[in-house]
């Protein structure tokens, strides 16, 4: 008799990712078996992921390890991290590491914690020479990300949610993006895996928590079941569109940019708005404006120098980047 359907589903999802990691490893002409780490908080999603990695990795000749991050935001969080590390070792993962981080304040508590967490995971991957780090984001997380992007009004790329593969050289992999949260929880139950429910996930002080416990249930009540699946599908369609527009913008940039780094206003005006704004964003980032601080309203203001020119003065962007129209050229400079 085979495993429970939930257990089979999480294992299949991880198996597919490990095959991809192995293929990439082989193309690099590496002889040693690749190391794959699972980032584990001790919650149902990441514990299910750790169990699936434990099962599949030896069958494919992959080394499997784990890392848990202590954000230091709750009393006793160090003990919790140590306990999660013990659980990972009990699954026979090796190496296993518990890392303590300091969370800053930039961008709000959720963004600051995320930035610090990824910095720690990057450092751990480098330290251990890991080929990939698995993350336990599910289809439910994807739906929440799409809704948050919609609320920010920040465009197609924001609506595309999380990609299955991100990071330098495709370091981060999200095997569960097509599985719902309930499947992961059921897989833990069927394997008698202990899980920890982070109280922050139920704290209404956090935007994502309110969305998870109030917003999405309200949408499902109003629109019926299937909202999560529809939002996840929207993410994939938006990602395909955004990828195509980004490629178009990269090609268009070469036709509007001169050797001095200024942009041809007439050529920009002739581009479709979605492409033109991407070119402007790329140029602003290239001049030194931080991508995380550059919002749609900034780009719209720059766009008006092209589409609604009334002799406006220079526009100041984050990162001390200035934009001004000079004759038929757009000049974007840091200073």
UniProtKB/TrEMBL annotation:
It is found in: Cytoplasm. SUPFAM superfamilies: Adenine nucleotide alpha hydrolases-like, MesJ substrate recognition domain-like. ATP binds at residues 41-46. One of its GO terms (biological process) is tRNA modification. One of its GO terms (cellular component) is cytoplasm. InterPro entries: Rossmann-like_a/b/a_fold, TilS/TtcA_N, tRNA_Ile_lys_synt, tRNA_Ile_lys_synt_N, tRNA_Ile_lys_synt_subst-bd. Its EC number is 6.3.4.19. HAMAP family: tRNA_Ile_lys_synt. Ligates lysine onto the cytidine present at position 34 of the AUA codon-specific tRNA(Ile) that contains the anticodon CAU, in an ATP-dependent manner. Cytidine is converted to lysidine, thus changing the amino acid specificity of the tRNA from methionine to isoleucine. This is tRNA(Ile)-lysidine synthase. It comes from Streptomyces kasugaensis. The gene is tilS.
């Amino acid at each position: 008799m085979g495993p429970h359907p939930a257990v089979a589903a999480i294992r299949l999802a991880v198996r597919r990712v490990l095959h991809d990691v192995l293929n990439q490893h082989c193309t690099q002409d590496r002889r040693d078996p690749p190391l794959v780490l699972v980032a584990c908080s001790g919650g149902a999603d990441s514990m299910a992921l750790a169990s699936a990695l434990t099962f599949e990795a030896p069958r494919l000749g992959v080394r499997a390890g784990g890392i848990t991050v202590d954000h230091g935001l709750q009393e006793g969080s160090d003990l919790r991290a140590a306990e999660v590390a013990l659980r990972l070792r009990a699954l026979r993962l090796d190496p296993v590491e518990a890392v303590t981080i300091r969370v800053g304040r930039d961008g709000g508590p959720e963004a600051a914690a995320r930035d610090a967490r990824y910095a720690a995971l990057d450092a751990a991957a480098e330290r251990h020479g890991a080929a990939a780090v698995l993350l336990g984001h599910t289809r439910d997380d994807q739906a929440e990300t799409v809704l948050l992007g919609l609320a920010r009004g920040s465009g197609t790329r924001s609506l595309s949610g999380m990609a299955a593969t991100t990071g330098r050289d495709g370091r981060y992999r999200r095997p569960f993006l097509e599985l719902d949260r309930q499947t992961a929880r059921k897989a833990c139950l069927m394997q008698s895996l202990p899980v920890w429910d982070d109280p922050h996930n139920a704290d209404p002080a956090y935007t994502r928590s309110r969305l998870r416990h109030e917003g999405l249930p309200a949408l499902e009540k109003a629109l019926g079941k299937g909202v999560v699946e529809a939002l996840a599908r929207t993410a994939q369609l938006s990602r395909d569109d955004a990828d195509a527009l980004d490629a178009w913008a990269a090609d268009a940039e070469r036709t509007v940019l001169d050797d001095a780094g200024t942009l041809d206003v007439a050529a920009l005006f002739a581009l479709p708005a979605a492409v033109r704004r991407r070119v402007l964003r790329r140029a602003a980032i290239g001049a030194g404006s931080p991508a995380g601080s550059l919002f749609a309203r900034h780009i719209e203001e720059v766009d008006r120098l092209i589409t609604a020119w009334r002799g406006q003065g220079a526009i100041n962007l984050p990162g001390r980047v200035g934009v001004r129209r000079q004759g038929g050229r757009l000049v974007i400079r840091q200073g």
